[in-house]
Amino acid sequence: VLGLLVWALIADTTYHLHAAYGWVMFVSIFFWIVTVLFFVTYLLQLQLKFYMIPWSLVLMIFNAVATVLYITAFVTCAAAVQPTSWRQWDYNRRAAASFFACLVMIAYVAGTFFSFRAWKGLGSNAATSQVTDH
């Protein structure tokens, strides 16, 4: 949802007049689509049919790449916001897009951390980590 907000807010401005927003649009739309595809894959449990794919490693790499590219998109978006814009609504939408890009970046950082823990086998829930000695 946050990624959708980033590209929807920018798409509602005159982003084509500023080359920097082309990169932000590419990153936000590309990773939004791929994230939705991964979500649908897990929702439909398709990863169980393709058991030969190391899904935890794939997700960790995806989240790490998304983190790095969203850092560049966030910095680009934030640097391109100009408070002296002649259209106030463009400024507000671009500033909001920068804020949500930062939130998406933080979400991908958290996703990378949890994917790394799952890949290393450190991610277990309370039900599987209970040990009883009798």
Summarize the structure.
GO terms for molecular function: structural constituent of myelin sheath. With 134 residues, this protein is mainly α.
Descriptive key words:
134 residues, mainly alpha, 2 domains, 4 helices, 69% helix, MAL, cell membrane, transmembrane, Plasmolipin
Q: List SSEs in N-to-C order.
A: HHHH
What is the radius of gyration computed over CA atoms, rounded to a whole number of angstroms?
19 Å
Secondary-structure content class: mainly alpha
Give the mean pLDDT.
Answer: 84
The global form is: elongated
Strand content: under 5%
Subunit structure: Forms oligomers.
Family: Belongs to the MAL family.
Domain MARVEL: 1-120
Transmembrane segments: 20-44, 56-81, 96-116
Structure description:
By secondary structure, this protein is mainly α. Helix content is 69%, strand content 0%. The chain contains 4 helices and no strands. Helix 1 packs antiparallel against helix 4 (88-120). The longest helix has 33 residues, at 88-120. The radius of gyration is 19 Å and the shape is elongated. The relative contact order is 0.16. The mean pLDDT is 84. Residues 1-120 form the MARVEL domain.
